[in-house]
Structures are given as C-alpha cells and as structure tokens.
Amino acid sequence: MRTIRLGQPWPLGSIATEQGVNFALAAPMATRVELLIFASGNAPEPDQVVELDHRHRSGDIWHVELEGVGIGCCYAYRVFGPLLPGHHGFNPSKLLLDPCARAIAGWDVYRRVDATGAVPNTASCLKGVVTERDRFDFRSAPRPRHSWQRTVIYELHVGGFSRGAGSPVSEAARGSYLGLIEAIPYLKELGITTVELLPVMAFDPHDAPAGRLNYWGYSPLSWMAPHHAYQQGDDPLQIRHQVRQLVTACHQAGLEVLVDVVYNHTCEGNQAGPTLSWRGIDDRNYYHQNAKGDYLDVSGCGNSIAANRPHVRRLILESMRCWALELGVDGFRFDLGIALSRGEELAPLDHPPLFEEIEADPELADLKLVSEPWDCGGLYRLADFPAKRVGAWNGRFRDDLRRFWKGDEKSCWTMGQRLAGSPDLFGGVPALLGRSITFLTAHDGFTLADLVSYSQKHNLANGEDNRDGDDHNNNWNHGAEGPSTDPAVAGLRDRQLRNLLSSLLLAPGVPMLLMGDEVRRSQGGNNNAWCQNNRLGWMHWQPDANDQALRLFVRRLIHLRHHLSDLLNPDLPHADPKLLRFDQPGHLQRHWHGVKLEQPDWAAWSHTLAWSLNDRERGPLLWCGLNAYHEDLSFEIPDCSAGWQQVINTGLPAGDDLPQQPQAISGSTAAMRSRSLVLLVSDPLMQGHQL
Fold first, then answer.
1. Do 598 and 516 fall into the same domain?
2. Predicted local confidence at residue 616, as pLDDT
3. pLDDT class of 582 with cuts at 50, 70, 90
C-alpha cells in the first residue's frame, strides 16, 4: 500500500509533491472524509481508500499526502456528516468530484441519474485528475490589453463556431479548442479585438430533459476544469495544454479571450437534484437555503451559489486565478453576475465581498470583467453595479435600438439616450468607458437575421411546445414570417440589418457582436437554442452573395469605428453645448437635430433623429441621420467648411452603402430613404483613408 502522510491544507485540490500528491478539500461540516484512488477514469472500483480522521484536519480543510501517485492520478471523495431534518447534502453513498480538480475523467461511464437517491454511484462517478499547475507563458504570448475605447467583442460557442458545412476548419479539429485556432484568420479579418467564449468550464451535458443535451453549457460541473467535449483526443492531461494553445494563438494574433463563467449556480439543481460535488461536500455552505433547508433560486436553475460566504469566495477566486494565470485568459463575463452580490436570505449587498476581493487582488488587476446586471429574482443594477471595474450588459440599449428601428412609438427620445452613452441610466452623464457593454443580440434570444425575419418565436425543436424562450423581443418580420423571396421584404430586412449594426458601432460603449450575425446566421426563428447542437446552433459557413455583402459591410464598419474611436468613444464625455465653458474637459459637443437642424423631434410619434459631433474650433466633424419612418425624407445637414464625405448610406445598394472610398457630397440637405441611416464625416478625417 502507498505511504500516507498528513499533508498540507494548501493549496486546495491536488498538487504533485516530491513524494507524491497532496490532496486538500474544504469541508467545514464534515465529520469524516475518504479519499478514493482509481487506476483510471473508467475504473468501476477504487484501488485504495484512504480514511482521513481528525489528524488530517486543519480548521475547515481536510488534507493528506499520498506517496506512490503523481500526475494523472484519478481520485474522488466520500464525505460523511450529519444529515439534519430538511437538509439534503451529506450522502456517503455518492462519490464526489473535487471542486478544485483541474481535469476530469470518467465521462465514458458517467451516469447523472446514478447521482440521485441512495444507490452507490462508485462505478459511474466522475473523478478528478491530478494535473500540473504551470503558469501561462505570458512572455511568449503577452496579453493584447486592448483599451476599452477600441474593444469590439465577438461572442461565440467553441463547439459550434468551427462546425457546419463549409467550415474552413479541418474535419478532425471541428468543434474543438484547437479547431478554433484555425478560424482565427476569419476573426482577425472581421476586425474584432476580443472573443468571448460561451462556457468552457466543465459542464454536465446531461443536465437536460430526456432526449436532449445541454449545448450552451450554462450547467457548471467544475469551475476549474475545461470542458472535455471541446478537446481533441481523450487524454485528460492534454486538455489544459490545448486551452493554452488556443489562448496563445489568440494573443499572438492580437485577440483577447474572455470566458463566460457561471458562478451563480451549478448543475446539481434543487434539493432533489444529483449529488455530484458541492452538495455532498457541504450544501449548506455553498447554496442559499431557507430555514427548512429548501434551496433558494434566483438563477432559474434550482439553486443559487452563496458567494457572500468565505469558502465559496475562495473557490471562485481560485477558479479565476486558474483560468487567468494558469490558462492565460484575459477576462470573464459573469452569467447573472448580480446574483453574486446577494447576501444571507438573498438580500442585495451594496458592497458584496466577492467583488471587493476580486478588485483588491493584484493578480486579477489587468483583466477585463463583464457581467449581466440582472438575475431571475428581479434584481437589476446597471449603472450602480456594485463593482467599479465590472462592465454591465446594457439590456436597455438592445431593447431601445430594436424599438426605434421597428418603428415603435415613444422610441425616439430613448434612442437618443442610447446613442449618447445612456446618460439617463448613468446619473446624467454618459457611461464611463468599460461600464456599458452595448449589444443587439446574444446567444440568448434571436440572431440578428431572425430578429428582422420573424414576428414570433419558433422553438418547437426544443421539445417544450414553444413555451420556452422570451416572448418579448421587439422583433418584426417586415411583411413575411421567415424566409422570403419577395424583393421588397428582403430589401427592407437588409437595410434594417445595416441600420441596427451601424447604430451599434457608432454609439459610445463597448460593442458586442453575436457569432454569425455578420453573415445573417439564422436559427429558424428559435430564440432559445440552448439544446441545439446542430446547424441551428452552429456557425454559418456557406454564405450567399447577400450574406457576403453584409460581412463586408460589417468589416468596413468595424474598421471605421477603429478609425474614429477617439470621436465615437472618447476618453472623456462629450460636453453639453448648452453649458459650454472653455474649462470643460470635453472638446466635443453633441448636437441633436431632426429633419431640420437644431430641431430634434422627441414626440411620441416621431421616427426621425439626427445628431452631430462638433469640435469647439473646427465645427461639425460627424453628422448622422436616422430615418425610421416608412417614407423617404429630406434632412437638413450642418455646414462643414472642410466638406463632407458620405461614409454610410444604408439606403443604397450593397457595396455602395459603405464603400471602400467614401464620396464627397455637397448641398444643405441629405435625401434619406425610408428606414435608412446616413453618416457624414468631415473630409479631413477621411482623407487618404480607405475602409
């Protein structure tokens, strides 16, 4: 038998030592712990069971050092403790996954159903794998560190982006971390600076109704281990190397990598769910519960993580350091992140300890942090998100841009606020850089092409009789439900796509695009494709001529945003022209117009808006007109002594709507087609510059 030593309480998880491996597990309420060693991930029985008693306990940490094992060792825990009435955690019949394991084995034998009830799951449990804990090589692949001012985010699904007919990725690599490397040239050509990966921390694909699999990954099984299904090969020791290869390739191409993290809940569900890890170790510590022991839920998934508690905070911080320092990622997007600000009995906290510790950690200081500002319990904190370094998804931006271009009443004033940096939401001034993440679409909802092609959701493929998915989307089919060969319908949809994208990329904030929106990727009207690991959820790699034309438009639009970033997203907010003083920091003034100069129409029935950015000394530099009315109109334009270049006109045919070489225009008016957008740029700003 292997020699057993007391071991050390730190670091948590498993780590190779000179003599063997040190194992450490935080289990405050446990009365006894067993460490089980397996010959392989699929082994039905352990080779050795190591009992830990009070001598192997330091405070809340159980620890042991085992000689004769090393990197690649597979292991699990059995945890014993009091099962009080109404509480559901301790269940010694279940073998548990170490929350700090960097890799997982046993997927070939894993059965989620065996983790419920009282039947032992020894033959079908998942095991942690002892791995290296090397730091990422930032010397060879330093972080790109793009400023928020120039950041353009592209949200994608690692498994789905490289799949689909026509994918440029080699067949063997499709759907993998390494396959995404082969697609980097596509992302670089598009012009984005930052990729945001849907969950890549290990999740349970079987956390789904019978006959379906969890595709998106918002069902975390581990906050440390990468998800196995995106790996090439089946060696659990290679998965971390493959993630590092992906991050290295992105860094060397100048792309940042953000990871969508789900710290607000786990795949263990409510009190009737499976006992896989956290629940069996100490569910009263990890999950919010009421006095009866019932799980409290503001995630919509059966449980809510108690991120206000010390051991839980420690685990989340350990996870962030694992991914940022060992695997090299550049930041995180917190799913339902505001749920992490809740304290006991789910009370919202103005100074949540988790975010305070994140912001005080010097090893996490150079990361980009983004969050959803809402949860399923009704908490919504956008401008007052309780963490100064965390940018929040601006859902109001998404909704108000959709409403304006759809032609809704009472949408003009709110559209103006969004185009000005949402001062109405941020205390009367535009949102500071990095605080407002602006977007039109995300994984959760319609794609952009479906937004303008469907008036109803079509989610029957999800198997829930079309009951799932949001019913309030501000979508419009423009005259026909779904695909249409009617030239008038198709032409209007194409203009609306360009109107929406232009509005997004000409507005202050940090814009985010959804995978495939640039080529009109469709999900057939499905606005909740969480279980669609098929062409509905994959990237669109066979674009027709119209798809390619939109992609060219988006590429030039992103290039234009980079070129004009100091104007569109300045470091300092625009000065208010009505309060202009020479000692104000803002050198730009935003003027509002309607079809007539200096006469914006904010009435409920208005569907027209124009704005200009004026320099104190040089006069107008940009003018943008938006005509969401159903008729053509003529807009007055300000005089520009240097001359205007028409850069965007979505009323023109594809290719001419955003030409490589803008055209000089003259006159005092701009003719605007119905439902179109025009951008004029002062001639000196575009001289010699091609898009």
1. no
2. 82
3. very low
Residue with tokens 């509905």: 536
**Would you say residue 320 lies in a domain?**
yes
- What pLDDT does residue 573 have? 55
* Total number of residues shown for the chain: 691
Q: Could you list the active site residues?
A: 335, 372
The whole-angstrom separation of Cα 543 and Cα 550 is: 10
Token pair listed for 401: 């841009």
225: tokens are 């281990």
Angle at 358 between CA 352 and CA 364, to 5 degrees: 170
Q: What is the pLDDT of residues 302-349, one digit of tens each?
A: 999 999 999 999 999 999 999 999 999 999 999 999 999 999 999 999
pTM for the full predicted model: 0.97
The CATH number linked to 624 is 2.60.40.1180
Tell me whether strands 510-514 and 153-156 are parallel, antiparallel or unpaired. Answer: parallel
- Distance, in Å, from the CA atom of 118 to the CA atom of 93, rounded to the nearest integer, reads 6
The span from the CA of 299 to the CA of 269, in Å, is: 10
Q: How many CB atoms lie within 10 A of CB 465?
A: 8
Tens-place pLDDT, residues 132-190: 999 999 999 999 999 999 999 999 999 999 999 999 999 999 999 999 999 999 999 99
CA distance 272 to 595: 61
Q: What's 350's domain CATH number?
A: 3.20.20.80
Q: What domain range includes position 482? A: 197-220+237-266+300-566
- SS3 label, residue 614: strand
Domain boundary among the residues 551, 566, 581 is at 566
User: Residue-wise over 594-633: b if at least 16 C-beta within 10 A, else e?
Assistant: bbebeebbeeeebbbbbbbbbeeeeebbbbbbbbbbeeeb
The distance of Cα 637 from the centroid of its chain, to the nearest Å, equals: 39
Closest CA to 657 of 648, 666, 667: 648
